[in-house]
Design a protein that fits this description.
about 280 residues, alpha+beta, 4-stranded mixed sheet, 8 helices, globular
Amino acid sequence: MFFYLKRMNRFFVLLLVLVSCQPVKKMQWPQRNSSLTGDEFYHQAFAMKWKERDSLALKEILAGNVPGFLKKFVPVHVSITDSTTGKTIKATYYVSPDYLSIGNDDDPIANGWARINITPNAAQRIADSFHCFLPTRKIVDDIYKAATIKLEPVPMYAFRDSTPTMWHHHLIVEGQRKGRKGLIAGIQKDVVISGKISRDTRQDRVAIYGWHKLGGKAIQPLYTGHVNWWVDYSQCIRLIYRKIKVGGQWMDYTDVLKDPLLQRLLCDEEFCDFYRYPY
């Protein structure tokens, strides 16, 4: 009996270790209250401008209508060296494996889900609702380095801000992906948070960055030239879980960004004090 109990104790210790080291973080989303597929979303939004498209997207996502794979956030590991002590500080944050999408990946019908393009203000409302934040430039670069699926960007030149072009671009990306699963990057520019926004003399800006080529160079440098209601096919939303594990301790991303040393885990700009978009 003693040896049996000893074996059982070892089993439970091993089980606890495996659970604590799980490679994904299952995010809590509302139970799906809509059956709208990605294909149907784009059919409804075909002639919509940005306000109507934002409203439809918000309605669907807040109703839990996102593909199941998008709820399983994956870890990205980063580290910095404290120049004062010489010690290495390690951190882990969790990111959505793909860009914000609508639909159901369990639906046997083709095009059951699709990536969507929305304003940063709508994206912020979604991020706040699910305890997330939008990435920084550094986070976008780190995600690209960690990605298991890196695809060549596909620029499009006509009707860039039209809903049909957004749908067409999603289908092109799916043709490239060929059903492969895992953390994906290189397919979109990211809407990011940046200190450039609060220092831009123009009001209501959106910051975008990314769209890495296969060599690792981003097509889009950090840019705040667009007004925040401008949305085109090439910019999309990646969600980051707002709790960051720093040296074994969970911290809110705002606390990390406010710390003069730790902010370098998440931000490579001179100023890292813009945390969220208003809505």
